[in-house]
UniProtKB/TrEMBL annotation:
InterPro entries assigned to the protein according to its UniProt record, in alphabetical order: DNA_Partitioning_ATPase, MipZ, P-loop_NTPase
CDD domains per the UniProt record, alphabetical: ParAB_family
Protein name: Bacteroides conjugative transposon TraA-like protein
Superkingdom: Bacteria
GO molecular function: ATP binding
Cross-referenced Gene3D superfamilies: P-loop containing nucleotide triphosphate hydrolases
Organism per entry: Flavobacterium johnsoniae (strain ATCC 17061 / DSM 2064 / JCM 8514 / BCRC 14874 / CCUG 350202 / NBRC 14942 / NCIMB 11054 / UW101) (Cytophaga johnsonae)
Length: 255
C-alpha cells in the first residue's frame, strides 16, 4: 500500500467528540468522489453508532422526498457515470485488513478509502487501525479540553506509533475547525506556537465555523452541505474555506 499509485488510506481522527471528524469524512469523500472524479470508499468503524451508515440511509430518503435534490442527484449520477461511494460497516478491530480484502475483491480501482474511527484509544484495535493509515487529519478547536486531548493523542501517534517503524503513516496533520471569523482569539496564535514547539504539524487553512457542519439536508433544501450522495454546494464550501482545505489536503497527500 505504499506506492503513490496505490489506494490512500485516510482518517479524520480525534480523541474528542464534537470536533467534526465524521463531518469532514463525508465532506471530503463526497467532494473527491462526486466533483473531482476519484473513486472513493468509506469504512464506518465508529461502533456502535455507525453514524455514517445511518446518514447515508437518511440521505437516500431525503433525496427521494425532495424534488430539487432528486433532480440534482439524477443529473449528477448521469453525468459522472459512477455510483454513490460505498459506506461499509466494520468494527475498528481488523478494519485495515478488511479494507485490503475489499480492494482485492473489487473490480474497481479505488483512489481513496476513508475511515471513520472511534474517538477513544481504549477501543480494541484502534491503535493498529491508526497505524495502518497513510495520512491522519485531526480537527481541533480553541478549547482547553479539546486541545489537551488532541495534543496527547497526536503525540501518542507521533512519538509511539510512527517511531516504532511498523506503520504506514506518512503524515499527521492538526487543523483548526469551527473558527469564529468575528472573534480574534489569541488562543489560536498561542496554541499554534505550542504545537510547533512540540514538533507537530498544523495546517495553514483554518476552517470557519458554520451551522451547516451540524446540519444534514432539509426537506425543502435547494442546496446541500453534509451529504453522502451529493457534494457540498461550492458557495458554502468557499464560505467556510473548505475549498482551501481541499487544496491543502492534496498538497499534503501528494508531497
Amino acid at each position: 500500500m505504499e506506492s503513490e499509485n496505490k489506494t490512500k488510506f485516510i482518517a479524520f481522527s480525534s480523541q474528542k467528540g464534537g470536533v467534526g471528524k465524521s463531518t469532514f469524512t463525508v465532506l471530503v469523500a463526497s467532494e473527491l468522489h462526486y466533483r473531482q472524479g476519484y473513486n472513493v470508499a468509506v469504512f464506518d468503524a465508529d461502533f456502535p453508532q455507525y453514524s455514517l451508515v445511518k446518514m447515508k440511509n437518511r440521505d437516500l430518503g431525503m433525496v427521494m422526498e425532495n424534488e430539487f435534490l432528486k433532480k440534482a442527484a439524477f443529473r449528477q449520477f448521469t453525468s459522472i457515470n459512477r455510483k454513490a461511494y460505498p459506506i461499509i460497516e466494520h468494527k475498528a478491530e481488523g478494519v485495515v485488513q478488511a479494507a485490503i480484502e475489499f480492494l482485492e475483491s473489487s473490480d474497481l480501482r479505488f483512489d481513496f478509502i476513508f475511515f471513520d474511527l472511534p474517538g477513544t484509544v481504549n477501543t480494541p484495535g484502534i491503535l493498529k487501525a491508526l497505524a495502518g493509515m497513510h495520512h491522519i487529519f485531526t480537527p481541533i478547536t480553541a478549547d482547553r479540553v479539546v486541545m489537551e486531548s488532541s495534543l496527547v493523542f497526536t503525540q501518542l501517534m507521533n512519538d509511539v506509533i510512527m517511531k516504532k517503524g511498523s506503520t504506514s503513516i506518512k503524515s499527521i496533520n492538526l487543523f483548526w475547525n469551527q473558527v469564529d471569523g468575528r472573534e480574534r482569539s489569541p488562543l489560536y496564535e498561542l496554541y499554534s506556537k505550542l504545537i510547533g514547539e512540540l514538533g507537530l504539524t498544523i495546517m495553514r487553512t483554518q476552517v470557519m465555523n458554520s451551522t451547516r457542519f451540524r446540519k444534514e439536508s432539509e426537506a425543502a433544501a435547494k442546496t446541500v452541505f453534509r451529504s453522502t450522495l451529493l457534494p457540498a454546494d461550492e458557495r458554502l464550501m468557499k464560505a467556510c474555506r473548505m475549498d482551501q482545505f481541499i487544496a491543502e489536503f492534496f498538497e499534503i497527500i501528494n508531497s
